[in-house]
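sanity check this chain:
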Amino acid sequence: VAKFDASLCGQSGHTDTYGNVWTITRAVAGRKTVVQSPSARSAHGIWLFGTDDYIDLPSGALPVSTSPFSMFVAFRIWENGVAGTALCLGPSSGNTDLRISTRATPTRPALIVPSNTGNATGPIVGTKWVGIATSDGGTGQTLYINGFVTAPGSLAMGTVSTGRIGANSAPNEFLDMELMGVGIANRILTS
């Protein structure tokens, strides 16, 4: 359905293999998001997110929430004690989104469907986290972190009409991080 790969992205964005256009926009003042990739003359492909940075997913990348789907994110956070969102799919308003997030104390990855949060024991800051969150198209969600099931969930999502990297659907709960890759599939993935 969609695939963001920082190693293929230049400073203004790129088009993924599914035809989705990923556009990078920057504030005119303050800290700015940065893409480092071979296309942007860097040795490796990552996207650096500062405070208040986030990406809106292309509409073609959004799954149908009543069908099975999975979302994947590989990232590394920059500081301890942060509660923030790495990847979120949800409605444009309301409180029924599905997120791969970090919790503040202690910092750990979490699968969040409001009123039903499952936390996983997280690695320390500076360690790469690979998260896969799945939905069965009904009320079941599962989170895998670095290959292990950590958080089964059982609450129905709202209709997916927005998706964000680096913030939730509000948008708030920003996450300072290095982003290595994101994927969305219209099937259930496992570790």
In short: Residues 71 and 88 are 9 Å apart (CA to CA). The longest strand covers residues 69-77. The chain has no helices and 16 strands. The mean pLDDT is 77.
